[in-house]
Amino acid sequence: MDLDLPLRISGVGRYLPERVVHSRDLERRCGLPAGWAERRAGVITRRWADPHRETAARMGAWAALEALEDAGLGPRDLDLILGASGTPQQPIPDGAALIQRELGLGASGIPAFSVHATCLSFLTALQVAAHLLASGTYRRILVVSSEVASVGLNFAQPESAVLMGDAAAAVVLERARLGHSSALLAARFETYGDGAHLTEIRGGGSALPPLSPAARPEDFTFRMEGLRVLRMARDLSGAFLEALRPGLSQGLAGLRAVVPHQASRAGLELLSRYGWPERAVARTLPHLGNCVAASIPATLYDLLRSGEVQRGDELLLVGTGAGFSMGGVILRY
């Protein structure tokens, strides 16, 4: 959908947990041959949080403070905080309120709520924020994706256990002023619920609460049928990209760079079929892993910090999420 909403990324921030976990250590834990994790998942190292010190809310706040400094603002200059995470710190209250408190804004009254679309949460939040800014409802919006996925891994399923990493990333968004070309040019989301069971954590909700006699420990860990998810992405993504921008399934179509969700090695390799040069596709998978909704903004952070993207360049942010869902936004930075 063509939108052309005035949207400016004023600041970016990121926090990576201190602990670096090497694939060789996970291979030993899972009884896998040396090199298996890199060959299959594409991950050499990833960061895992200390869940007592590096909580999702604290990580999100640390990333947010860097983004605010980058924008030349302070926490009290915000008028909305949007959480955009797939792995909540706790079911209630919403994680955005916990981030607000960690920022020292617990008595501020600044509204805080989350947009939840698993791995696509950041993209969904960008679209929501763009409409809110364009309407004049808010002036400065903080979007934060903070993920601690490592606490919910099942090491009997090494496909996902070696893939996931923890990270937080944040952006400060404002309405682009007159004379500035920054904009959200297009956005598209599609969901195919027939694939909902392919990527899930079954327990923790009303269908399988913690005290249910039917609940098993593995019901509260992440499970994924990666090959079937990959096949859905392969079969559906070409038409999806064409609907987002004609020509996008055959080349860059005027884009400077692509920032994909770091889903897996196979997921990133799938992108080559669209004629996108490897140099134009940003990657953090080998050293960060799949960081759920934080993957796209954490990778965007690297791209913007590198100086390879200038104001006026057009970027595609794109990915898949549990559901099965696909999402993409085109930004003019």
UniProtKB/TrEMBL annotation:
<feature type="domain" description="Beta-ketoacyl-[acyl-carrier-protein] synthase III N-terminal">
    <location>
        <begin position="113"/>
        <end position="193"/>
    </location>
</feature>
<dbReference type="GO" id="GO:0006633">
    <property type="term" value="P:fatty acid biosynthetic process"/>
</dbReference>
<feature type="domain" description="Beta-ketoacyl-[acyl-carrier-protein] synthase III C-terminal">
    <location>
        <begin position="255"/>
        <end position="333"/>
    </location>
</feature>
<dbReference type="InterPro" id="IPR013751">
    <property type="entry name" value="ACP_syn_III_N"/>
</dbReference>
<dbReference type="InterPro" id="IPR016039">
    <property type="entry name" value="Thiolase-like"/>
</dbReference>
<keyword id="KW-0012">Acyltransferase</keyword>
<dbReference type="InterPro" id="IPR013747">
    <property type="entry name" value="ACP_syn_III_C"/>
</dbReference>
<dbReference type="Pfam" id="PF08541">
    <property type="entry name" value="ACP_syn_III_C"/>
</dbReference>
<dbReference type="GO" id="GO:0004315">
    <property type="term" value="F:3-oxoacyl-[acyl-carrier-protein] synthase activity"/>
</dbReference>
<protein>
    <submittedName>
        <fullName>3-oxoacyl-[acyl-carrier-protein] synthase-3</fullName>
        <ecNumber>2.3.1.180</ecNumber>
    </submittedName>
</protein>
<keyword id="KW-0808">Transferase</keyword>
<dbReference type="GO" id="GO:0033818">
    <property type="term" value="F:beta-ketoacyl-acyl-carrier-protein synthase III activity"/>
</dbReference>
<dbReference type="GO" id="GO:0044550">
    <property type="term" value="P:secondary metabolite biosynthetic process"/>
</dbReference>
<dbReference type="Pfam" id="PF08545">
    <property type="entry name" value="ACP_syn_III"/>
</dbReference>
